[in-house]
Amino acid sequence: MARASALWAVGMLAYARAPVGAAAAVAVAMRRLGAASCATSMAAPTGGVTLEVTTAYGAIKEAADFFAREFWASAGELSDAQRGTLADQHRADFERRYGQLTGKRRFPSALILALDGERIVGCAGVEMTVVDAAAGRFWDRPQAEALFSERFAAMGGRERSQYRKANLDELAAAFLQGTGAVRPVLSNLAVRRESRGTGLGERLVRGCEELVRTADGWAGDDLWLLVDEQNAPAVALYMRLGFEEVWRSEEMATRLVRAAGGGLEVGQEPSFLLAMAKKL
Length: 280
Fold this sequence. Notes:
single chain, alpha+beta, 8 helices, 8 strands
């Protein structure tokens, strides 16, 4: 059974999109990263690569195409039609999660691009969602949004006013009743093939950590992620950066599987996924 190597691409989870008002605060946090706070931890210089947060659909589409290309980089046997289908799936997922919306979203998110001039050489997403460590699962972002919206809709006017200015932790305590907590989750980390081994993957992770610590609406003291146990380079990177395994679960994961006719097709097969977390 064949599979994509996807050495630096992790996470195909669906969580949140950034609220419109968060973009400016996130941009300020990212400007504070600069060379001083990011480059010091790199294994090798990354030249003129800069980090940028975006909610623009054009940039998100380009990032999704980049992610699809790099994630399936080793899948040389895929047809153009199969690659096109994968790219369409990633575009829809990225737009749903990171695209700019009208109105306020309770669960912030950010898509961080690593740019060498105007060329994308890396990307990473970070999103707030519900993590239920006791049950060993991450909630899907729309599921979490729907629950909170339903709880608000069921409230009377006075009770709704009481919670209108509450932060996510306060809302989670009231709405989840011990079944989870709202935490920041890292996903969709990918680095261009020729840029691997330069420390850019680490720099993207550090950028997500800085954003979670400092940007308005986040204020997280930890960062979570879900990674395929078979993605050894990614697991090694996260462990080196201080992430520790919290649980592992057997779930269906996307793979390149050998079809009956001998060719490759995208399918699902059981895999152990590791939930990891780091205190910030």
